[in-house]
Automatic annotation (TrEMBL):
Similarity annotation: Belongs to the ATPase epsilon chain family.
Localization per record: Endomembrane system
Name of the protein in question: F-type H+-transporting ATPase subunit epsilon
Domain ATP synthase F1 complex delta/epsilon subunit N-terminal positions: 1-76
Membrane topology: Peripheral membrane protein
Main location: membrane
CDD domains: F1-ATPase_delta
GO cellular component: endomembrane system; proton-transporting ATP synthase complex
MF GO annotations: proton-transporting ATP synthase activity, rotational mechanism
SUPFAM superfamilies linked: Epsilon subunit of F1F0-ATP synthase N-terminal domain
Keywords: ATP synthesis, Cell membrane, CF(1), Ion transport, Membrane, Transport
Domain of life from the UniProt record: Bacteria
Amino acid sequence: MNIKLVLPYRTMLDQPVDKITAPGTEGSFQVLPKHIDVVWSLQPGILTLTKNNQDEYYAIQQGTLVKEGDAVVVSTFQAVKGESLEKLHESLMESVQKQDEKEKKAREALVKLETDTIRRFMEIES
């Protein structure tokens, strides 16, 4: 079967796999080629793709998995690839740190904008 991992801004992955293990909202589940067509809701967790007894790991946010025939589409807001669970953990930590830095810069910019706006209103009143 073929899996597509789709993010809001790009297709991250499009390749054949033998087995998919996904974090469903009702618990982890596996998808094999002869499974019936179905739609699952996903929760944040680890998506494991197996091909030729080799595993690839992706940390994903919530999303959906749709299986139709031999095509599987996973749609999620964010995904991070790791070659092993340890490397995935490292990648996630880096991603969280980068996100924290972006949020800090955004908060600083917002505070500056609010301060400038208040100062300008005070100048107008004077």
